[in-house]
Amino acid sequence: MKTNSLRYLAIILCILVILIFGSLIYFNLYFAKISRIGMDINVGNVTGFNVDFDAVHFGTLTKGSVGKRELNITSDKFRRKVYLLKKGEFADWVYFSENKFYLEPYESRLIEANAVVPNEAEFGSYKGEITVMMIKK
């Protein structure tokens, strides 16, 4: 009798685990899409460009100057609410032209990312990350 009870309990637990993981996978595939993009900037006494597109490179900027880059954000077959988040060593210097907006299915939008180097910034290299979170609406 105890063997049957344990067997039923094990089956119920397996079903619960499958349902939980299935729900997480479904949510991530259909409701939320999250992309992370590296970003970097160098502060120096000259201005230099980095046109590589493997990350958001603001290049080398002098103190008090502004670097600009464009992000092309594109929706899939769903209407999405888009959030742009930033973190890292110079996240406080970065501003987006829009950081919360809606995209219709297959719509694209160019978002400007500006890095404003403070006058009191130290010379050196700084790294960060942009997170693009797209929620199905």
Q: Care to describe what's here?
A:
The protein is of the alpha+beta class. Helix content is 22%, strand content 47%. The radius of gyration is 22 Å and the shape is elongated. The strands form two sheets. Strands 2-1-8-4-6 form a five-stranded mixed β-sheet. Strands 3-7-5 form a three-stranded antiparallel β-sheet, with no helix packed on it. The chain has a single domain (34-136), classed as Immunoglobulin-like. It is built from one helix and eight strands.
Record the SSE blueprint.
Blueprint: H1 2-31, E1 32-43, E2 56-61, E3 66-74, E4 80-88, E5 94-96, E6 100-103, E7 108-116, E8 124-136
**What order do the strands of the largest sheet run in, or round the barrel if closed?**
2-1-8-4-6
Going by helix content, strand content and strand pairing, the class is alpha+beta
Extended strand count: 8
Strand content: over 45%
How is the CATH topology named? Immunoglobulin-like
Oligomer designation: single chain
- CATH architecture assignment: Sandwich
C-alpha end-to-end distance: 50 Å
The ordered H/E elements are HEEEEEEEE
How would the global form be characterised?
elongated
Counted up, domains total: 1
> How many whole angstroms does the radius of gyration measure?
22 Å
